[in-house]
Design a protein that fits this description.
This protein has no helices and nine strands. It has about 100 residues and is mainly β. It has one domain. The relative contact order is 0.20.
């Protein structure tokens, strides 16, 4: 994490600043401020990096035992970079 990164539980909640090590839960919305970046490591096969002024949320499904599967990213604004080493992911953008 570089700079200011904020998270909120849903669209009605206010954003709150988070620090390195924060655990992002499914459907939480993440926002990076100007000159800020964040990297999410979700599994050994997937990581996601966002650029400045980016807003996005994740939809995560839990498959037992303890296997997390990312099913969708909803990008509201900004840019993200995804490194995927197997499997698939759906990314919804404002242009969709």
């Amino acid at each position: 994490m570089n700079g200011v990164v904020d998270v909120r539980n849903n669209a009605q909640d206010p954003y709150a600043q988070v620090n390195n090590g924060f655990v992002l839960k499914s459907v939480m919305q993440l926002q990076t401020q100007a000159d800020s970046r964040v990297r999410l490591d979700l599994s050994t096969k997937f990581n996601c990096q966002s650029g400045p002024t980016t807003i996005f949320s994740l939809k995560i499904k839990l498959h037992l035992p303890r296997v997390v599967v990312l099913s969708q990213i909803q990008l509201q604004a900004g840019r993200i970079w995804i490194v995927l080493q197997g499997g698939t992911i759906n990314v919804d953008t404002p242009a969709d």
